[in-house]
TrEMBL record:
An MF annotation (GO) of this entry: dihydronicotinamide riboside quinone reductase activity
GO cellular component, one term: cytosol
EC number assigned by the record: 1.10.5.1
Enzyme class, spelled out: oxidoreductase
Flavodoxin-like fold domain ranges (all copies): 3-208
InterPro entries the record matches: Flavodoxin_fold (IPR003680), Flavoprotein-like_sf (IPR029039), NAD(P)H_dehydrogenase_qn (IPR051545)
Signal sequence segment: none
Source species, domain of life: Eukaryota
Protein name: Ribosyldihydronicotinamide dehydrogenase [quinone]
Family recorded in the similarity comment: Belongs to the NAD(P)H dehydrogenase (quinone) family.
Length: 226
Protein backbone atom coordinates (compact mmCIF):
# COMPACT_ATOMS: atom_id res chain seq x y z
CA UNK A 1 0.00 0.00 0.00
CA UNK A 2 1.10 3.52 -0.74
CA UNK A 3 3.31 2.42 -3.64
CA UNK A 4 3.15 4.45 -6.82
CA UNK A 5 2.79 2.68 -10.13
CA UNK A 6 3.05 4.13 -13.62
CA UNK A 7 1.61 1.97 -16.38
CA UNK A 8 2.78 2.95 -19.84
CA UNK A 9 0.22 1.41 -22.13
CA UNK A 10 0.43 1.06 -25.90
CA UNK A 11 -2.72 -0.34 -27.50
CA UNK A 12 -5.29 1.48 -29.60
CA UNK A 13 -8.32 -0.52 -28.48
CA UNK A 14 -9.70 -0.64 -24.92
CA UNK A 15 -11.56 -3.87 -25.76
CA UNK A 16 -8.31 -5.59 -26.76
CA UNK A 17 -6.58 -8.24 -24.70
CA UNK A 18 -3.96 -5.65 -23.79
CA UNK A 19 -6.80 -3.37 -22.74
CA UNK A 20 -8.10 -6.14 -20.45
CA UNK A 21 -4.63 -6.66 -18.97
CA UNK A 22 -4.38 -2.93 -18.30
CA UNK A 23 -7.81 -2.85 -16.64
CA UNK A 24 -6.85 -5.75 -14.40
CA UNK A 25 -3.62 -4.09 -13.32
CA UNK A 26 -5.34 -0.78 -12.54
CA UNK A 27 -8.08 -2.53 -10.55
CA UNK A 28 -5.86 -4.94 -8.65
CA UNK A 29 -3.14 -2.43 -7.76
CA UNK A 30 -5.69 0.19 -6.75
CA UNK A 31 -7.39 -2.41 -4.56
CA UNK A 32 -4.02 -3.00 -2.87
CA UNK A 33 -3.85 0.70 -1.99
CA UNK A 34 -1.30 1.65 -4.64
CA UNK A 35 -1.72 4.89 -6.52
CA UNK A 36 -1.81 4.07 -10.21
CA UNK A 37 -1.16 6.42 -13.10
CA UNK A 38 -1.67 5.35 -16.72
CA UNK A 39 0.01 6.88 -19.73
CA UNK A 40 -2.33 5.68 -22.48
CA UNK A 41 -0.02 6.58 -25.35
CA UNK A 42 -2.40 6.27 -28.30
CA UNK A 43 -5.23 8.05 -26.45
CA UNK A 44 -2.76 10.83 -25.58
CA UNK A 45 -1.65 10.89 -29.20
CA UNK A 46 1.84 10.73 -27.76
CA UNK A 47 4.48 12.07 -30.15
CA UNK A 48 6.97 9.25 -30.80
CA UNK A 49 9.38 11.26 -32.97
CA UNK A 50 12.56 12.66 -31.48
CA UNK A 51 12.74 16.11 -33.06
CA UNK A 52 13.88 19.63 -32.26
CA UNK A 53 10.29 20.41 -31.21
CA UNK A 54 11.22 18.71 -27.93
CA UNK A 55 13.40 21.69 -27.04
CA UNK A 56 11.73 24.93 -25.98
CA UNK A 57 13.64 28.09 -26.79
CA UNK A 58 17.18 28.38 -28.04
CA UNK A 59 19.28 25.45 -29.17
CA UNK A 60 22.70 24.75 -27.68
CA UNK A 61 24.09 24.39 -31.18
CA UNK A 62 21.75 25.51 -33.93
CA UNK A 63 24.37 24.89 -36.63
CA UNK A 64 24.21 21.11 -36.38
CA UNK A 65 21.34 19.47 -34.50
CA UNK A 66 22.25 16.68 -32.09
CA UNK A 67 19.16 15.28 -30.33
CA UNK A 68 21.04 13.72 -27.40
CA UNK A 69 23.05 16.85 -26.66
CA UNK A 70 20.13 19.23 -27.14
CA UNK A 71 17.74 17.31 -24.85
CA UNK A 72 20.47 16.95 -22.23
CA UNK A 73 21.14 20.70 -22.29
CA UNK A 74 17.42 21.48 -22.36
CA UNK A 75 16.81 19.17 -19.40
CA UNK A 76 19.45 21.01 -17.38
CA UNK A 77 17.90 24.43 -18.03
CA UNK A 78 14.28 23.26 -17.73
CA UNK A 79 13.70 23.66 -21.45
CA UNK A 80 12.13 20.36 -22.48
CA UNK A 81 8.66 20.37 -24.02
CA UNK A 82 5.67 20.06 -21.69
CA UNK A 83 4.71 16.51 -22.65
CA UNK A 84 8.20 15.26 -21.78
CA UNK A 85 8.31 17.11 -18.48
CA UNK A 86 4.97 15.54 -17.54
CA UNK A 87 6.13 12.01 -18.35
CA UNK A 88 9.41 12.53 -16.48
CA UNK A 89 7.47 13.67 -13.43
CA UNK A 90 5.37 10.50 -13.56
CA UNK A 91 8.52 8.38 -13.85
CA UNK A 92 10.24 10.25 -11.03
CA UNK A 93 7.32 9.64 -8.68
CA UNK A 94 6.82 5.97 -9.54
CA UNK A 95 8.13 3.01 -7.55
CA UNK A 96 7.19 0.64 -10.37
CA UNK A 97 6.94 1.11 -14.13
CA UNK A 98 4.77 -1.39 -15.97
CA UNK A 99 4.94 -1.45 -19.76
CA UNK A 100 1.85 -3.05 -21.32
CA UNK A 101 1.95 -3.66 -25.08
CA UNK A 102 1.58 -6.12 -27.94
CA UNK A 103 4.86 -7.39 -29.37
CA UNK A 104 5.60 -5.64 -32.70
CA UNK A 105 8.47 -7.09 -34.75
CA UNK A 106 10.16 -8.71 -31.77
CA UNK A 107 10.04 -5.38 -30.00
CA UNK A 108 7.72 -2.70 -28.67
CA UNK A 109 5.32 -0.63 -30.77
CA UNK A 110 6.90 2.55 -32.21
CA UNK A 111 4.81 4.79 -29.96
CA UNK A 112 6.29 3.10 -26.88
CA UNK A 113 9.80 3.12 -28.31
CA UNK A 114 9.26 6.83 -28.91
CA UNK A 115 8.33 7.23 -25.25
CA UNK A 116 11.65 5.59 -24.29
CA UNK A 117 13.59 7.70 -26.80
CA UNK A 118 12.07 11.00 -25.68
CA UNK A 119 11.41 10.62 -21.95
CA UNK A 120 14.59 8.90 -20.77
CA UNK A 121 16.80 11.89 -21.43
CA UNK A 122 20.45 12.15 -20.41
CA UNK A 123 20.72 14.01 -17.13
CA UNK A 124 17.31 12.66 -16.10
CA UNK A 125 17.63 8.90 -16.55
CA UNK A 126 21.38 8.37 -16.86
CA UNK A 127 24.53 10.41 -17.13
CA UNK A 128 28.06 10.04 -18.40
CA UNK A 129 29.39 7.86 -15.62
CA UNK A 130 25.95 7.01 -14.23
CA UNK A 131 24.55 4.03 -16.05
CA UNK A 132 23.45 0.45 -15.31
CA UNK A 133 23.65 -0.12 -11.56
CA UNK A 134 24.67 3.54 -11.22
CA UNK A 135 21.84 4.84 -13.43
CA UNK A 136 19.84 7.80 -12.20
CA UNK A 137 16.51 5.98 -11.79
CA UNK A 138 17.59 3.70 -8.97
CA UNK A 139 15.18 2.26 -6.41
CA UNK A 140 12.59 1.78 -9.09
CA UNK A 141 11.25 -1.45 -10.52
CA UNK A 142 10.08 -2.20 -14.03
CA UNK A 143 7.98 -4.95 -15.55
CA UNK A 144 7.44 -5.67 -19.22
CA UNK A 145 3.97 -7.15 -19.72
CA UNK A 146 3.25 -8.03 -23.33
CA UNK A 147 1.26 -10.20 -25.67
CA UNK A 148 2.40 -12.07 -28.76
CA UNK A 149 0.95 -13.37 -31.99
CA UNK A 150 3.15 -16.46 -31.92
CA UNK A 151 2.42 -19.37 -29.62
CA UNK A 152 4.54 -20.37 -26.67
CA UNK A 153 5.54 -23.55 -28.55
CA UNK A 154 6.70 -21.59 -31.63
CA UNK A 155 8.77 -19.30 -29.46
CA UNK A 156 10.34 -22.32 -27.79
CA UNK A 157 11.39 -23.67 -31.21
CA UNK A 158 12.52 -20.38 -32.76
CA UNK A 159 14.60 -19.39 -29.82
CA UNK A 160 14.29 -18.09 -26.35
CA UNK A 161 12.00 -15.09 -26.03
CA UNK A 162 14.55 -13.75 -23.57
CA UNK A 163 16.84 -12.69 -26.45
CA UNK A 164 14.42 -9.99 -27.45
CA UNK A 165 14.11 -8.75 -23.89
CA UNK A 166 17.82 -7.85 -23.83
CA UNK A 167 17.42 -4.47 -25.57
CA UNK A 168 14.31 -3.54 -23.59
CA UNK A 169 15.12 -4.76 -20.10
CA UNK A 170 18.91 -4.49 -20.09
CA UNK A 171 19.59 -1.87 -22.78
CA UNK A 172 16.96 0.56 -21.53
CA UNK A 173 15.75 -0.14 -17.98
CA UNK A 174 18.92 -1.52 -16.45
CA UNK A 175 20.94 1.16 -18.24
CA UNK A 176 18.88 3.76 -16.40
CA UNK A 177 19.39 1.99 -13.07
CA UNK A 178 15.87 0.54 -12.92
CA UNK A 179 15.57 -2.99 -11.56
CA UNK A 180 13.72 -5.51 -13.68
CA UNK A 181 11.04 -7.94 -12.54
CA UNK A 182 10.27 -11.14 -14.47
CA UNK A 183 8.45 -10.24 -17.69
CA UNK A 184 4.80 -11.22 -17.99
CA UNK A 185 4.04 -12.77 -21.35
CA UNK A 186 0.61 -13.75 -22.65
CA UNK A 187 1.17 -15.89 -25.72
CA UNK A 188 -1.15 -15.70 -28.71
CA UNK A 189 -4.35 -14.37 -27.11
CA UNK A 190 -5.94 -14.23 -30.58
CA UNK A 191 -5.43 -17.92 -31.22
CA UNK A 192 -6.32 -19.62 -27.98
CA UNK A 193 -9.70 -20.60 -26.57
CA UNK A 194 -11.88 -18.25 -24.56
CA UNK A 195 -11.15 -20.42 -21.51
CA UNK A 196 -7.41 -20.06 -22.02
CA UNK A 197 -7.81 -16.30 -22.38
CA UNK A 198 -9.70 -16.12 -19.09
CA UNK A 199 -7.01 -18.28 -17.52
CA UNK A 200 -4.27 -15.90 -18.69
CA UNK A 201 -6.15 -12.91 -17.30
CA UNK A 202 -6.60 -14.65 -13.95
CA UNK A 203 -2.89 -15.50 -13.88
CA UNK A 204 -2.06 -11.78 -14.26
CA UNK A 205 -4.38 -10.89 -11.36
CA UNK A 206 -2.76 -13.61 -9.25
CA UNK A 207 0.73 -12.44 -10.06
CA UNK A 208 -0.09 -8.85 -9.14
CA UNK A 209 -1.32 -9.98 -5.73
CA UNK A 210 2.19 -11.01 -4.68
CA UNK A 211 4.16 -8.67 -6.95
CA UNK A 212 5.71 -6.63 -4.14
CA UNK A 213 7.30 -9.74 -2.68
CA UNK A 214 9.17 -10.53 -5.91
CA UNK A 215 12.91 -10.14 -6.27
CA UNK A 216 14.27 -8.48 -9.43
CA UNK A 217 15.92 -10.74 -11.99
CA UNK A 218 19.70 -10.88 -12.24
CA UNK A 219 19.80 -8.65 -15.33
CA UNK A 220 23.10 -9.90 -16.72
CA UNK A 221 23.93 -11.66 -20.02
CA UNK A 222 23.47 -15.06 -18.34
CA UNK A 223 19.76 -14.42 -17.76
CA UNK A 224 19.30 -13.72 -21.46
CA UNK A 225 21.78 -15.88 -23.34
CA UNK A 226 22.92 -18.73 -21.12
P1 LIG B 1 -6.65 -8.84 -29.34
O1 LIG B 1 -6.86 -9.25 -30.73
O2 LIG B 1 -7.18 -7.54 -28.89
O3 LIG B 1 -7.25 -9.91 -28.34
C1 LIG B 1 -7.32 -11.29 -28.64
C2 LIG B 1 -8.71 -11.77 -28.28
O4 LIG B 1 -8.93 -11.60 -26.87
C3 LIG B 1 -9.83 -10.97 -28.96
O5 LIG B 1 -10.75 -11.87 -29.49
C4 LIG B 1 -10.42 -10.17 -27.83
O6 LIG B 1 -11.79 -9.90 -28.05
C5 LIG B 1 -10.23 -11.11 -26.67
N1 LIG B 1 -10.36 -10.48 -25.36
C6 LIG B 1 -10.08 -9.22 -24.98
N2 LIG B 1 -10.41 -9.03 -23.70
C7 LIG B 1 -10.86 -10.19 -23.23
C8 LIG B 1 -11.36 -10.63 -21.98
N3 LIG B 1 -11.43 -9.80 -20.93
N4 LIG B 1 -11.76 -11.91 -21.84
C9 LIG B 1 -11.70 -12.76 -22.89
N5 LIG B 1 -11.27 -12.40 -24.12
C10 LIG B 1 -10.84 -11.13 -24.28
N6 LIG B 1 3.59 -11.20 -32.87
C11 LIG B 1 4.72 -11.88 -32.56
O7 LIG B 1 4.65 -12.92 -31.89
N7 LIG B 1 5.95 -11.43 -32.94
C12 LIG B 1 6.10 -10.30 -33.66
O8 LIG B 1 7.23 -9.91 -33.96
C13 LIG B 1 4.93 -9.55 -34.00
N8 LIG B 1 5.02 -8.41 -34.73
C14 LIG B 1 3.89 -7.71 -35.00
C15 LIG B 1 4.01 -6.51 -35.72
C16 LIG B 1 2.89 -5.76 -36.02
C17 LIG B 1 3.03 -4.47 -36.77
C18 LIG B 1 1.61 -6.22 -35.61
C19 LIG B 1 0.37 -5.41 -35.93
C20 LIG B 1 1.49 -7.39 -34.91
C21 LIG B 1 2.61 -8.17 -34.60
N9 LIG B 1 2.52 -9.35 -33.87
C22 LIG B 1 3.67 -10.05 -33.57
C23 LIG B 1 1.23 -9.84 -33.34
C24 LIG B 1 0.81 -9.09 -32.10
O9 LIG B 1 1.80 -9.19 -31.09
C25 LIG B 1 -0.53 -9.64 -31.56
O10 LIG B 1 -1.51 -9.39 -32.54
C26 LIG B 1 -0.95 -9.00 -30.25
O11 LIG B 1 0.02 -9.27 -29.25
C27 LIG B 1 -2.30 -9.51 -29.75
O12 LIG B 1 -2.71 -8.76 -28.64
P2 LIG B 1 -4.00 -7.84 -28.70
O13 LIG B 1 -4.23 -7.22 -27.37
O14 LIG B 1 -3.97 -6.92 -29.87
O15 LIG B 1 -5.10 -8.98 -28.97
ZN1 LIG C 1 20.90 -5.85 -17.26
Amino acid sequence: PGKKVLIVYAHQEPKSFNGSLLKIAVEELTKQGCSVTVSDLYAMQFEPRATRNDIVGHLHNSEAFNYGVETWEAYKRGGLSKDLVEEQKKVQEADLLIFQFPLFWFSMPAILKGWMDRVLVQGFAYDLSKAYDGGLLQDKLSLFSFTTGGSKEKYAIRGDIRYLLWPMQHGIMHFCGVKVLEPHICYAPENVSEDKRKEMLTAWTQRLKTLWKEQPIDCSPEWYFK
